[in-house]
Queue: 4 jobs
Job 1
Amino acid sequence: MEAKIMGQYIKENFAGKKIGLLYQDDDFGTDALAGFKTAGVNFAVKVPYASGSQGAAAAAGWITKFKAAEADVVILFGVSSATSAMLGVAAQLKYAPQWMLGSVGGDATTIKLTGVPAGVLYNAIGFSPVPATTDMKDEYVKFFSDIYAKAVPGSAFDLNVLLGMNTAFMTAQALKAAGQNPTRKSLMAVIDSKGTTFANSALVPLGYSKTSHVGLTGYWVGKYSPTGDLSPVGGTYVTYTTDSGAGAVVKSTYVRPAMPAKGLPN
Amino acid sequence: MKKVRILSLLSVTALVTTVLVSVPVAANAAPACDGKSPIQSCVGATSDGAPYAMQVPANFNGTVALYSHGYRYNVDIPSAIPLIGGYKVTNTPEPVPGGNADVAKYLFSQGVAIVGSGFARQGWNPDSAIKTNVELIDTFKKQFPKTTKVIAWGSSLGGVITQGLAEKYPNLVSAVAPMCMADNVEPELTMAGDFLWGIKVLFDPTIKAGNYSAGAAGVAESYADLGKVFTVMGKLQAGISSGAWPDTSSATGKSLEAAGVPVRSALLLLGLMAGLPTQSAHFDSISGPDGALKLTFPLAVSPALAVLENGTNAAALAILATQDVENQTGGAIFDNTKTNYAARVDSERVIFNAALSGNTVIDAMLGALSTANPGAPRAVANPAAVAKMRALHMNTGKINVPTVLMVGLADPITPAGASQRLVDLYTEQYAAEKAAAIKAYQTTRDYKTPTKKLLMLWNTTPANYTKFASTGAPITSTPAAQGTNHCNFTSAQLVLVAKSLVQASSTGKLPSGGALNTAVRKAGNLSTDKGIFAPLLKFYGDN
């Protein structure tokens, strides 16, 4: 799903450019390859890496391949430690194509924890289903960050925190909807029937039904600031949605539920 | 990690179990008893010449525990062969597991006598051993007419013999305990054959790995294989650190090496193809040393080291048991001409993707091992020999009497899947018995709940157990972790099994509920969790 949306963005914004792809050489990467194929992206070079093999030495080898292919845009579709290794070594080698990061590997907090300065992310394109964590105009972000500041003073309110609180918020709604004595069966039934209506911070539709628990079904496109914060391109969120199959990527008209009063699930 | 270190840990002695009594007595004569008290010892030999030993307490209550020992090599092993060299074929009886004094003491305290045969023939011997045990039970009863109950137990191949005895002669035994039970001969030697074949085609094509010549020539070939396999394992151990493939590698192996395939990934793939556990005596595939390798070591390296440790442990048995069964059946018994190794590891390639170095490398390795590669020739069996092997004793898995199974979840020689098979079959059996009881109720209006006849004790591995030196190197000098190695049971665990058998023989019911849970907890590293599922041997997925 994410790869399809990335592919659509590439077609709309980087037509004619040489595209390179770094991907994890397992099911994660296999799914990404399938998504890019569905989106019709042709790569100048594809570089797989085995999970666990990422590091500075490996990254130097990756860069050699992308340079040789003269890639204009390099997509990093792996985990954050691979992104960290790649961007850290690229900065040292002054290799600077247009970077595009998958949401899994675009976690600035993790990248910074590996010792790579957040500045390496600057101007990289990223994708997210939830609002920017710095967007205090967003009622969910403001509400969750206020709670977090009181609960864990001094700790950064980052994407991991937002997604965690969002998941907990939705889980509480599911438990409440399942009644006083929930069972696994009743909980699943509620998620199947009402999951798409749960209040949550995501700007994209929720995918819950008897046949799918895919969850978030879209992304908005942003760019990273020098401090590693992702903000929407053009200043406003433009969200794209699609499915996990051959369905088209479309701009989403989804309007998320308003924050319940006092943040208490209905 | 030094080569000598890992080799010193090998548990082949667990197979060649401790002997207890020496017996020079004429076949089929009445037992010669010493008449001593409080324990009277008797020795003798059954009509097939198999020596036996009996020990009967003065407070004998009429119950005797018949123990069947595990696999013993059927040939002497020259001392020049590493690890197992110097072994001499022995048929000394073993009336309790490994001569365990705690177990004997417990049984005697309950007034239970012990008896065991050394069996007339070593090697793969359930056909003859079951007959021997039947005769031995009769001999014991004649010598001690007070006998009312026989409980039978055994380890490894002795587990097969014990289960076979209960299947064929349920009226002779009141309760049984096949422990660390081997599977039937074909699944067991398929596992061995798959691993040896992989070692041969990648790391040393001069290894025969089966299809040994008849007679003494075949024995000599198996000795040569033992030396070569152990040598390759030593080179692989070094290669896991250095990345180098053994210098004896085949052209196929060398082409994989040239393509950048890590030798640790190739070794792990062979282990997964064969169904070897990915936890071993010292490698839990979970822990990593502090520092940069904290996550990488368990993710990428530890599973291969576990396969190395397990595979080395299993290699001697794999070679010598294959040679033995081929000798019994008259030809090659391992055939992988139709084995789809890619399908075999369909799940494992996802779970161990990092250790296998990713899909591109996995596909390259599986391609190299496929039937399409003439550089990895498949083993072809002799159909007549296979037919003879299949005519050897096979356990059906039918549970006739109260049965206790116990096995290590990471036993590399008799995988836990062999016991899981019986658990699965018993689930079907019990469902059928329950359905029959319901049907009977419809006519008699008297519902009798079928008695549960199976207790499965899983010998679990600790949550984590790999230890590291301050340098970050794994420590392999510690005792093997619980749940790993072959039949690696504590006295407390064996006594729990003995207690369960004594209770079941007396009441007809196995322990259950709170009493069982308490006993299991006290014995340590055991679980009766019905949610545990040990993978069946790969043979069953192929057939």
Job 2
Amino acid sequence: MTPETGTAERELIDALRAGSDEAAETLVRQEAPRLLRVARRFLVDEAQAEDAVQEAFLAAFRSLDTFRGDAPLAAWLRRIVVNVCLKQIRARAADPVDLAGLLPSFDATGCRIEPLRDAPAAPDVLLERREVRDLVRSSIDALPDTHRTALLLRDIEGYSTREAAELLGITEGALRVRLHRARAALKTLLEPVLGPHRDEER
Amino acid sequence: MRHLLRRLRGLLFRTLPHMISCREFEEFVLDYLDGELAPPQRKTFDSHVRLCPECRVYLEAYEVSRALGEAVCREDEDAPPEDAPESLVTAILAARRRPDDT
């Protein structure tokens, strides 16, 4: 284990490896809430998110010997829960990838059809409004699984394009297409809070 | 009127040297934001943004939306964690003690 691992964490890991029930409970109570948040974002469904967290903990308990301590325990658990979520999503009946109406449109000459508006307010200003935060959350949830996972892996979980593509078993090119479409769709879904169109003002 | 202007611009983008259509611009957006465009491509991208109000508006909204997504998720991460449902904690600990799960 590296010096990165704090004393308390090292003691917890030693106790877990020794099979301590108390240490297991400490770990579950400490980390489950954060892992549940991650799982909810990927799976949207509450019951499935709880299943994923349970499966992730059991996988972690089984593979404690492989934990090398070069990352904090919490980060290690988070990677496990992300993997479990991706596995669950793969097992779902493929969701219809319907981004109709959410992607940019162009006219016959290849010109973008986009209503004009003044530049939106800065994100931190927009986020002061609760309805904006709620819309952002529900819009990410509303993306099809394949696109939401690409967005979450790269923009939220901080995986590189290569890592995210590997996790999803697709090429980097395909990952980039999904990510771009996910962001473009999110932009369309957030239109109501980005400010009025100039045409509508007249 | 807007329609006509757009057609004219479309024609212009197709005939001027070092110019790209909005459709081609769309394919560059991700690389642009990742800072992965080579200098000549970057220049082409920048001139398109300057000349095309639609793509400018689109790009601003795209960037703000991405930032909103990241900020909301970060805010959720930073919020004090509520307790995990007791039923979940119990289920995990019970499953851990079952021999087939260890």
Job 3
Amino acid sequence: MKVHEYQARKMFADRGVPVPPGEIATTNVEAYDIAARYNKSVMVKAQVLVGGRGKAGGVKFAENAESARILATKILGMDIKGEIVRKVLVTEAVEILSESYVGIILDRAAQKPVIMVSSAGGVDIEEVAAKTPEKIHKMHVDPVIGLRPYQARDLAYCLFKDISQVRKAADILMKLYQTFWEVDASLVEINPLVTVTGGDVLAIDAKVNIDDNGLFRHPDIAAMRDLDAENPAEVKARNADLSFVKLDGSIGCIVNGAGLAMATMDLVKRYGGEPANFLDIGGSSNPQKVVTAIQIILEDPSVRSVLINIFGGITRCDDVATGIVEAFKQFRPAVPVVVRLTGTNEKEAKKILSSIKLPSADTLDNVVKMAISLAGQPA
Amino acid sequence: MSIFIDKKTTLIVQGITGRDGSFHAEQMKKYGTNVVGGVTPGKGGSRIAGIPVFNTMKEAVAATKANTSVIYVPPAFAGDAIYEAVSAGIKLVVCVTEGVPANDMMKAVPYVRQHGARLIGPNCPGLISPGQSKVGILPGSIVQPGSIGVVSRSGTLTYEAIWALTLAGLGQSTCVGIGGDQVIGTNFIDCLAAFQADPATKGIVMIGEIGGSDEEEAAAFIKKHVTKPVVSFIAGQAAPPGKRMGHAGAIVSGGSGTAEGKIKALNAVGIPVAGSPTELPDLMKEAFKKMKAGKFAKTKKAMMKTPTKTAKKSAVKKTGKKK
């Protein structure tokens, strides 16, 4: 799960990472008031979860409160890659002398957190990694021991020469690592970490991604989920405990298991169709989940046929069949629905389904081909 | 023979009184697995499907001398269940639980290794050595004893592949689901090495998916260390970047972890990748044929001392195209 900059910034600041003063505004008047109170030049920053907001014009410098009001008027309501800006962060502007990058991610292959620092900050770090990898310094941390102060200093020396700045940066790295661990993050990032006149080191941006599996330990963070920034169907699916991702195609897919759901999408593409979604109904077989799944797919106007592919293991085919029949009672689909149910309690499932007479196939490849050939035809 | 589990496997079910734990304890017992006990704190002294329940792993292992455990406890307690099993002396821990935080696993995985034990999972269907033992949730009805080793990051997709193999008359030595999470105890390379060393395994099916670089590392390992034929399927070719496809580990990020990249890495070391999981049996049979022919060609080559380069090249091209 992604959180907004202002939320990530608070996670850092709560643990002692120095950040410039800043507050959140949802209207241009609020932005004006904040800037007027600071009585300084400010930055007005769009709060969106997508990347590239700077290039899209979502981050602007304002000389005074009036200019902050005008800029906030422009930025609030802006559409950045499909996400509408509903909040802006107004922070005191600082005079930047240098920009660095510091970040921590989970390195899957090493099964450890890896800290990355670079003196080439303020730009897209993936670009730096691709073009000038020698400018990025990496260090793995033993998760059992944690980050040691000497390691943080080693990294800080890659960024600064001045010992007082090295100490400040090392302290920030320690606190960043603490944040990474305490909030169950999969990524924490400050880009840029800046030096200002007088020698201070400040975080003027903040990014945190949370490991979804760790959310149960952090109800406060789970509550930060920005439902406005998400596809409504994805929200509905998550509430029903379904794993769903909206795609651009026309073949609706309902599958049990993430791997099989991906493979089913792949086959839709292979046989000339385009999948409308990824949907995994999960391991257990609750008929109600199947009803919700079918409803979500049918509510998508681009869907022209639906395929249901179940390989019964723990999931019982008869439970899925019961869900399908129930869904057909509640909302008569306007597009063809084809099924393939195989595995646990397959025979019982076929008996249950005989009441609604759906086109069915016995293999994975055939159900996909059938869904594609029936697409666009009346149900 | 088989890998990791066999007739000598003696199993304890952690979380045996839960909904999933009790159901699968019975399923495993029915399949023929030697389920010697279960653990649920506070339920010691009771029985589930005739299996004695203990309060702690220490107690259970002392009473039963079990060597393997399987975990069905909720994600918040799964990490602890792993430590408990290993410190009680269990050598193989299979964690079925989905949704375990990566931070918990980053600490648990090195602990398991330091104690000379093996962890499979989390977020995995477990494993089965057909006709001998099953640990986890794989349906016993779809397997058949034989000589194909199957290793996969997925659950139901693995069933699909196993079922296709069984229908084609290709039985299995062991099928292992290693799990779809970012931090897992046993990876492709561990399984490939075990299959390579197992005399009962003649060919290997490897089922990967988007995210991470396990498949690329496996390809490099196969080139160096695996002489048995390997065929593969990679799920997620139609997946958009930046979106997590169900599994915690199934995400294409920053252009890495794509299906294309993985397929390319596998093809580069001569591993054919199927367009559909149902085509895996044919690829396997072809790989066996090719291997026989290769061996024949090698002996012939040695006898004639004149390598037929063009013939070899066209043969590679042909099989390369067949995917």
Job 4
Amino acid sequence: MDLNMNEIGKKEVQVWDGSQSRLRRFWQEGPLVLVFLRHYG
Amino acid sequence: MRREKEAFDQVGARVVLVGLGSVGETATFKERFEVPFAMIADPQKHLFRAFRLKQASVGSLFSAQMIAKGVSAMAKGHSIGKPKGDVRQLPGVFIIDTAGRIRFSHYAASPADHPRPEILLDVLRCEETEGGS
């Protein structure tokens, strides 16, 4: 599946501690394992 | 994956979980279950949609496999709380290198479909050997 990672990386995300960050920050220093969870509870 | 955190650290990978709860719900979940990884709150599913993760059919939620998983979880002491998020949302896992390229993707075929951590670590070790991006 061809995803536009350049655009996806620019997305601002809400981190659990209340801060915000662009998603690409998470893979800048090393590979990122991004795990999408179904739900909590 | 919690048990493999050290292994992920050793290959220099960062694990980040994306959930459907609010920031507050995400923080509570992280604290309650002592999640050792960073978490992103995506209640509006912006990231889920960006990565094109799909939803399960209603029927698959009540499949024999899902029921068995639920019973197994309860037998281990996990309680069934009120789920926060979209119970039909299917999960997924992606490995992204430092150039922003996807090196591995897993789109769950069912709610209980998750790649084993060993598979992810194998991909990461290959990346490390090849010099990554």
